[in-house]
Amino acid sequence: MRARRRRLSIATAVAAVAAGVGLTAPPATSAPPLQYVSLGDSYTAGNGAGTYTETTCWRSPDTYGALVAEHDGAEHVNAACSGGRVADLTQPRQLGAPTTRTATYRVAGNAQVQQDKWLRRAKADQLCGETTQPDLSWEMSFVGETTAATSGNVELTATVSCQLTAAPQIDAVTQETDAVFLTIGGNDVNFSGIVLQCMVLRSATGCESTIAAADAALPDLRDRTAAALQAIHDRSRGNAEVHLVGYPNLLNTASYSIPEAAPTYDAGAALFAMQARGDELQAKGVAELDAADTGPHGYTFVDVKPAWDGLTHGLDPSTTPDNSQAWLVPVLAPGRQLPEWVHPTQEGYAATAEAVIDAAR
Known about the structure:
This protein is an alpha/beta fold. The protein folds into two domains: 35-91 and 169-359, Rossmann fold; 94-166. It is 33% helix and 17% strand. The chain contains eight helices and eleven strands. The protein has helices at residues 10-20, 42-45, 64-72, 111-124, 191-200, 204-235, 267-292, 346-359; strands at 35-40, 75-78, 93-94, 99-107, 136-146, 154-166, 179-183, 241-245, 257-258, 265-266, 299-302. A hairpin with a 7-residue loop joins β5 (136-146) and β6 (154-166). α3 crosses α8, α5 (191-200) runs antiparallel to α6 (204-235) and α6 runs parallel beside α7 (267-292). The chain is globular, with a radius of gyration of 25 Å. The termini are close together.
């Protein structure tokens, strides 16, 4: 692990040299702020924090990346998005189902020119809707149209499909980026399915098969994650320290059998073992990347579980739970929405931020 870089302005460096040789130094200027970027899934976007700048990606100003940036006096861009997968780091992602909109505009030219002008008018009028995030945009495609003629100045009525699309998350990384933080992989191994089968439905067979499938997917996940981390590092031209952040223990116990009345499957033990194996594989992949990198800034795996006091602040899986110590939003928590369930509270994000800060020392 290599510490995040601290940049000096040219004027500051010149001032230091001048002072050393007894010359009059030019006025000192402050160094530009560090640039931090958060990528990945809901555990980085901020689901569960309870404070959100928007609820498409569920980005929160209280996510751990923002807290680390505040600690270091850095500027922060949150490009993580709820439901994010490894592929979304380097490829565009369609968000939600498409909708349709119809409008009429007076346009001139041949049929193709008419369509081009119609689309420009529709985009200028925000026909599909507004987007508050710079990396989200509406992709429009014609699904039906009627026109009085194929050339000349006509009233063109057309219907378009509106698909909200997120740009590849890696686009937020530049040569000026000093550090990148991300959690990724949970959705690739069916995080929501595990929560549903093991914590909501409490199905022994469903939970067992879902965890077994997730466990089997871990080696491939490690390889795909490593390739994405390499791409992120390359995008910064080797200037950013890339921090892959692990997940906390979801449960507060390493043994929990379902159904409780007549136990047939130890879901707690299986989930604990699967999470531990995931951490081991991801940490090994990150260590290999870091060992192969010859630059001053490489890769770090951040194990957050010690900062979360191991199992202490996971969810109580019993049918009459005591979640007074939980730093995860319980399933069916009053006043909370489904995308917030089993995600860190503000206390949880603060603990994760502490782990990231400690890892960079």
